[in-house]
Amino acid sequence: MTLHIPFDNSYARLPAALFTRHDPTPVAAPEMLAWNAPLARELGITGDDATAPTATERAAIFAGNRLPDGALPLAQAYAGHQFGGFSPSLGDGRAILLGEVIDTKGQRRDIQLKGAGRTPYSRAGDGRAWLGPVLREYVVSEAMHALGVPTTRALAAVASGESVQRETTLPGAILTRVASSHLRVGHFEYFAARGDTASLSALYDHAVERHHPDARDPLDFLKGVIERQSDLVAKWLGFGFIHGVMNTDNTSISGETIDYGPCAFMDGYHPQTVYSSIDRQGRYAYDNQARILPWNMAKLGSALLALMPDPDAAIDPFTQAVHAMPEMIEARWLKTFAAKIGIAEPRAEDRALIEDLLTLMQAGSSDFTNTFRALPGNEAQDQIADRGGFLDWVGRWHARLESEPEAPVLMARSNPAVIPRNHRIEQMIAAAVDGDMAPFRNLMAALATPYARPDDPGLTKPPAEHEVVTATFCGT
Ligand code: AMP
Ligand code: MG
Predict the structure, then answer these.
(1) Residue 144's closest CA among 448, 473, 474?
(2) How many angstroms separate the CA atoms of 369 and 386, rounded?
(3) Is 129 helix (H, G, I), strand (E, B) or coil?
(4) Which of 117, 281, 342, 361 could pair with 407 in a Cys bridge, judged by C-beta atoms 3.0 to 4.6 Å apart?
């Protein structure tokens, strides 16, 4: 059998300034590390029968060594605000879009290789990725999906058989990423900064068609993105997730989590938690994420202004759309955290109940995931240092739950048992570097059903002192 990917490419038909046609650079010895068969089926990929010839072909295709029929590889142009400063030219420096498919549900999806070699946007970079970040993104993005968080997906991970030079010499790999699109805020900034309104307008039409077909004008479109991104950040907060690099080039138009670099799920709760080694000021700390998002959306708004018939007159309503965000995110935050303590329809006063629990958790650095998970059985008191304070809180909480008959069900589906903990990811990567993929498979199996108790109870444990990961590194 031959692997067939039903490409239907639309980005490649957009104006030339939006991208550069560019093929992946072949690698020495592609070897399949991971393959997401259910996702492949969802994408309408056929002929994938896992016989030896197909497996070899699969590795060749998803390493970039062999172009599948219908692929039209390209690298996209985009800009971005990185840690507050504007970079007018970023673009896909190590990612190549193979093409798009219409999946079995009728939704257009991008299939992109990450780490597929240099492109015209690579600047000083080598266009490659090493095994660690490839497997990290594979695990974390698939975990996010299973948790119910909008995200790009992972279709394949292939070892390149080449080494990549970072601080040390490391094994190279290529990730195949699937997204409802790879459009970022930075795409709009790229053309706005150049005053290229024709390209900006073509990009806008494409984005509207893919993500917000009901948008009547750029303001409406902005509001649509704001809504999806606000939903997303509230979900991140609810799982203790820290993206780590919320630059505008890593902020999607679709509202999917994109670009898993130094991301992490927090273990002990502290609102100012930062893992990313490059985020020295804590700009993208856990609880700053809700504040940075409006900033990023203001950048999208600024870029879209040029598309309005009277940009000056549009400044006011665009600004209002962004200023409405804190309240919008707050409402979603309340809904998310209320569900975690069993409240389906939160009232304003529930905020204090949630915050008081978080304060107790913060004081003793309680494990974020396990504390919420343990609430129903009252085992959470083992997680919280101030026992008296906690029992007092439980009294108030139980009184509130009297009018919430669905609380146990709601909590069971809002509080996962398993998240991809940093130390587990690090151990998984270390094993994979040594050629042992068992920890990867073990993690993936448990993360597929994160709300169920895992077979391996060790996966729910916070890190022991010697296992604590204090810094995560960018995916370069
Ligand atoms: P990131 O921090 O991964 O979101 O990447 C920021 C920018 O740097 C994007 O334009 C990437 O394409 C580019 N980039 C990151 N790593 C590499 C690399 N190894 N080679 C070329 N470009 C890269
Ligand atoms: Mg990026």
Answers:
(1) 448
(2) 18
(3) strand
(4) 342
Query: pTM here?
Result: 0.98
Question: Which DSSP category does 172 fall into?
Answer: E
Polymer length of the chain: 476
- Expressed in angstroms and rounded, the spacing between residue 260 Cα and the centre of ligand 2 is 8
Bridge partner list, 472: 276
In 3D space, the residue among 352, 318, 319 whose CA is nearest the CA of residue 338 turns out to be 352
Cα(357)–Cα(372) distance, integer angstroms:
10
Q: Which two tokens stand for residue 374?
A: 């343990």
pLDDT digits (tens, 9 = 90+) for 206-219: 999 999 999 999 99
Cα–Cα distance, 463 to 440 (Å, whole number): 17
Asked if residue 14 lies in contact with residue 79, where contact means CB atoms within 8 angstroms, the answer is no
Instruction: Evaluate whether 75 touches 91 at the Cβ level (below 8 Å).
Output: yes
- Written as six digits, the tokens of 257 are 């989590």
250 lines ligand 1 (CB under 6 A): yes
- For residues 354 and 337, the answer to whether their CB atoms sit within 8 Å is yes
Whose tokens are 């072909």? That residue is 57
- Alpha-carbon distance of 40 to 36, in angstroms, equals 6
Q: Is 92 in the pocket of ligand 1 (CB under 6 A)?
A: yes
CA atoms within 13 A on the CB side of 286: 19
The encoded tokens of residue 259 equal: 């670009």
Report which secondary-structure segment, H or E, holds 64: none
**Which long-range contacts does 279-286 make (Cβ < 8 Å, 24+ apart)?**
279/83, 279/244, 279/245, 281/83, 283/83, 283/84, 284/242, 284/243, 284/244, 284/245, 284/246, 285/242, 286/237, 286/240, 286/242
Catalytic residue among 48, 103, 231, 249: 249
Q: Residue whose CA is closest, atom 16 of ligand 1?
A: 476
pLDDT tens track for 340-383: 999 999 999 999 999 999 999 999 999 999 999 999 987 888 99
Cβ atoms within 10 Å of 3's Cβ, excluding its own: 21
Sign of the four-CA dihedral 346, 347, 353, 354: positive
CA separation for the pair 204, 355 (Å, rounded): 40
Q: Is 249 a catalytic residue?
A: yes
Minimal-distance CA residue to ligand 1 atom 7: 90
The span from the CA of 172 to the CA of 189, in Å, is 32
Q: What is the pLDDT of residues 183-234, one digit of tens each?
A: 999 999 999 999 999 999 999 999 999 999 999 999 999 999 999 999 999 9
